[in-house]
Amino acid sequence: MRAVRTVRIGVLGGGTVAAPVVGLLRERAEDLAVQAGARLEVVHVAVADVAKPRPPEVPAALVTGDAAAVVVDPGVDVVVELIGGVDVAGPLVRAALEAGKPVVTANKALLASPEGAELRSLARSHGVDLLYEAAVAGAIPLVRALRQSLTGERIVRVMGIVNGTTNYLLTKMDEQDAPYVAVLAEAQRLGLAERDPTADVAGQDAAAKAAILAGVAFGYDVSVDQVDCEGITAIEQPDVAFARRTGHVVKLLAIVERVGEGSVSVRVHPTLVPRDHPLAGVRDAFNAVFVEGEAAGELMLYGQGAGGLPTASAVVGDVIDAARNLLAGTTAPAPERRPVRIEPPSSLCSRYYVRLDVEDRPGVLGAVATVFGSHGVSISSMEQETPERLADEEGAAGRDASGLARLLFVTHEAATGDVAATLADLDAIPAVVRVANALRILPWERR
Amino acid sequence: MRAVRTVRIGVLGGGTVAAPVVGLLRERAEDLAVQAGARLEVVHVAVADVAKPRPPEVPAALVTGDAAAVVVDPGVDVVVELIGGVDVAGPLVRAALEAGKPVVTANKALLASPEGAELRSLARSHGVDLLYEAAVAGAIPLVRALRQSLTGERIVRVMGIVNGTTNYLLTKMDEQDAPYVAVLAEAQRLGLAERDPTADVAGQDAAAKAAILAGVAFGYDVSVDQVDCEGITAIEQPDVAFARRTGHVVKLLAIVERVGEGSVSVRVHPTLVPRDHPLAGVRDAFNAVFVEGEAAGELMLYGQGAGGLPTASAVVGDVIDAARNLLAGTTAPAPERRPVRIEPPSSLCSRYYVRLDVEDRPGVLGAVATVFGSHGVSISSMEQETPERLADEEGAAGRDASGLARLLFVTHEAATGDVAATLADLDAIPAVVRVANALRILPWERR
Description:
The structure is a homodimer.
Chain A: E1 6-12, H1 18-27, H2 29-36, E2 39-46, E3 63-64, H3 67-72, E4 78-81, H4 89-98, E5 103-105, H5 108-112, H6 114-126, E6 130-131, H7 142-149, E7 155-161, H8 164-176, H9 180-189, H10 198-201, H11 204-218, E8 228-229, H12 237-245, E9 248-260, E10 263-274, E11 286-293, E12 297-304, H13 308-328, E13 341-342, E14 349-359, H14 364-374, E15 379-385, H15 387-396, E16 404-411, E17 414-415, H16 416-428, E18 432-441
Parallel strand pairs in A: 1-2, 1-4, 2-3, 4-5, 5-6, 8-10, 10-13, 10-18
Antiparallel strand pairs in A: 7-9, 7-11, 9-10, 11-12, 14-16, 14-17, 14-18, 15-16
Helix pairs in contact in A: 1-13, 4-6, 8-9, 14-16
């Protein structure tokens, strides 16, 4: 039996992920030592408020208030950053990397910030690991799959359901035929949505993950502010019902698509997904990432995207990797990121679903169709809903629908820019009371 | 710019996977060099018959008939074994490992044979990689996910749809309400089933993959002859129809379950899977592996399980890994396998669906129910099908069903051994014409 080495771990943060990380590392120490080839010992847990009571997994003797000291402590071999956010965590991660320590983090905001690229460069230039399996899609072993297993693969497109809250809301709107506000209130009651749900429902959380996916899938440095982002707040029952009626389901997708050599589209938007697509079956708060590779074909990875324990599982996997690499004097593959052009969404084509509330009188449909035609947007199908249903639904949303008709269009493939121009012109027609929604429909043609 | 190193690759085999492997390594050389940190150069392609014409991806100048020379050639750094089977491939892999060369293989039969354990030990003792991402579930990055990402995870159960042919057959029986023989003939016509489909439909291919999964998920050495294996040849339209009617779908699952400390059940059998389970949506020839971990929760990996190009994609991923590890002087994690007790299936419990053809007269149901009761197998529900439907379906299968009734039972959780004893006793009742099928129903209780 060979001599047992010890890898000493400094944890930054004492919250919902940190506690189970410390718990797993301590409770499963024996098994993990076999995997890592070394004993993994948590030596510090740095928290903002040392006086605050901690869960039983975190022994009081390990707790310190001095995170800045932990990251440069020569008695710490690996730093695990679970603070989140950019302002506090950023300088700490930077200091740890500069001190030559591998860093494991679940911090999507930091990785997707403009500073993320600098931190990745810093890790590379110091020859240490910066691992972040838990930052996208929680427990799903996505980052390693893309960085290692599919490393020889030319990836065409990645589409992910990467925000559990919005997927839960959309699932309930579909299954219960319930309005957005009702399912949001229920999700907040269950703790599945924040009291201020903006970061989730406006798509910003998914956008950060899209930026990270662009890096691990395509090797491009993209930051969250480069992601074209549309959330789910405009989705209403008639959209969900139309999707269901036509064999689709509305999903908020984070999408990274290769458009040309050195050019990608990175965006987040609600999408009508066909029911027989693997992503359509991803329900409730589950996450999934669908990958299309030239050789591998279609792949999907599915699992829990959030929650303390699942996220902790991914963090612990990274800690083992960091420890193994440290002992072997190597690092996980992290090829240098390449420069990239972000394709503006306006040039991308897809079929669109468009919902309009219009005045219920002759001639309106003709005027509307003329606007579509004037922008070269070809209509594939149109249906008009009964005034009764419209009155009921709009009434429930506090709008007066008397004298109105609802028009539901599906277009042939059209450029996003042309559709946007169509919608703007439609909005200017007096007979069009409301451009209620416009959603892309999968599949769209290969770029 | 640092000096470019070259890793020289010897490929064994010139078939449907070898050709695209050679093709990808040559066509994508520039990208792959970035990933691997070295130029990957195919230097030999060893084939059984040098005279046989090869696809254009394989340059004639690389072709040799002397595989034994390739594996010991000092000019070869990494050996890629794509011959398949045990007798020829086994000694070649052994020789390569003994010569200190990393081996990448897609050979499930070899890995699941009793010799597989020896080869893994040999690789470990020589400090070289033996990588086999492509051996289970083709392009799905499963092995690396289980060996690395989930390395800190205590896995409870792995259930996989790992045979594309049988999943295609079951999907078509379900979607087209077509008999087994008809969908098999169609699959053979499309090249999705072999002319002799036994290895697929009897479950042997899935059993080899189950044995490999027991290794990568649980760290146990299991060989294919230790896997309890039941194929799909007994599945008939009434079973598929019953499944559909009750919100299930029949899937052939390879299952590895932790039963106790140091004890697993490893088996392959058709199973009634609830329609809302992620595995239920895996259609046609796609594969998927569903993993349940204590911390990570439910995970599923989905993709193409076979085909030359998808399999080649996984092989190339391994080649890059082997090259990187070789240059870094390390290997992929391969903890020593632990001894294991294989739990006999008789003690495991699940709900069962049982289909009987019986004489259509009073008293028979009572006699049948008494047999169930005598073995402590409790009946949850029973239905009797119309004689017309029975006559139609049995007639189509060439059986005379006049005077018969069909009984469909669902049991409460019962031990497999007790169910087997029940079926044997039922078979001995003169009024029971045929014990047509008995299938387990997901979910079953946590072992």
